[in-house]
Design goal:
This protein has 281 residues and is an alpha/beta fold. Helix content is 28%, strand content 32%. The termini are far apart.
Length: 281
């Protein structure tokens, strides 16, 4: 079985070792997009306890004032720490599966946090909320989900929604750190992941050197022990959108760079950076 992933890859197949594993599973394999109704719970399971970017983003948002807009909020990995600052937060997300996971997380949160959160289903590349925000946040390098026209729409909408003196905080791959000591001949990295549920996963990241996209595929950690029946594999094609390119694109949209904050995480082949932007005068 294949899903909307076919539209992203054009083949319903996976590159590298992940493709070999998929082929070995044969008809048992169900290939799903990482953000569909089946993939969203797995994504949430893996990222719920991930503190990547959280400290840096919270520190910068704390120094701003007024309501906060979080774009591509997903299941709320950043939403909950932002709400804990005592600010009103609008969480914008498009994928129904992610919205469902966020609703569940909010339902179990203290009432005072729920009261400060507004959830909006919308496309981050074109949104109109009729409100301005002291801080707009786009974390988890989610800008990589958009193509160039989509990013142009995003930046125009951000410029329109920033309050005077407001900040746009966006994470992406830092082009200055793409060589991080990994084996230059290796196109594929494999990582062991553990979810908050206790389930174990194996993530394959296929990224040929110089390619403008990387393919992320998530399998159960031990395929030999998976019971008989369908095996769901989750994948996403992630664009590599370098920081310098984003800075130039945002400048064209009327956003100027305030600071570039290195992040201590990323992958074996890259490091991430948090860009702090403001509306150009």
């Amino acid at each position: 079985m294949t899903s909307s992933t076919d539209l992203a890859t054009g083949t319903g197949r996976l590159p590298g070792q992940a493709g070999t594993l998929l082929a070995e599973l044969g008809e048992r394999a169900e290939l799903h997009d990482l953000y569909d109704e089946y993939g969203s719970p797995v994504y949430h399971d893996i990222t719920a306890s991930d503190t990547h970017e959280v400290r840096e983003l919270v520190r910068l948002v704390r120094s701003s004032s007024g309501p906060v807009l979080e774009l591509a909020s997903g299941a709320g990995r950043l939403t909950m720490p932002l709400l804990a600052l005592g600010r009103a937060v609008t969480a914008l997300e498009l994928a129904p599966g992610m919205l469902g996971a966020l609703d569940e997380r909010l339902a179990s949160a203290p009432a005072r946090l729920r009261a400060r959160c507004t959830v909006v289903r919308a496309d981050m590349s074109r949104f109109a909320l009729g409100q301005r925000f002291g801080a707009i946040v786009l974390g988890t390098t989610s800008v990589s989900l958009l193509d160039a026209p989509g990013r142009a729409g995003l930046f125009a909408a951000v410029r329109e929604h920033l309050a005077p003196g407001g900040r746009f905080l966006i994470s992406t791959v830092d082009d200055a750190l793409t060589d991080s000591g990994a084996d230059p001949g290796s196109d594929e990295q494999v990582y062991a992941l553990s979810g908050v549920s206790g389930r174990a996963y194996r993530m394959h990241e296929y990224w040929p050197r110089g390619a403008l996209a990387r393919t992320v595929s998530i399998f159960p950690a031990d395929l030999d022990r998976v019971p008989d029946g369908p095996v769901r594999i989750f994948t996403s094609s992630v664009a590599v959108v370098l920081a310098d390119l984003l800075i130039d694109e945002m400048a064209a949209a009327g956003l100027s760079l305030v600071a570039r904050h290195p992040l201590p995480t990323g992958g074996a082949r890259h490091r991430d950076v948090l860009l702090e932007m403001e509306a150009a005068v």
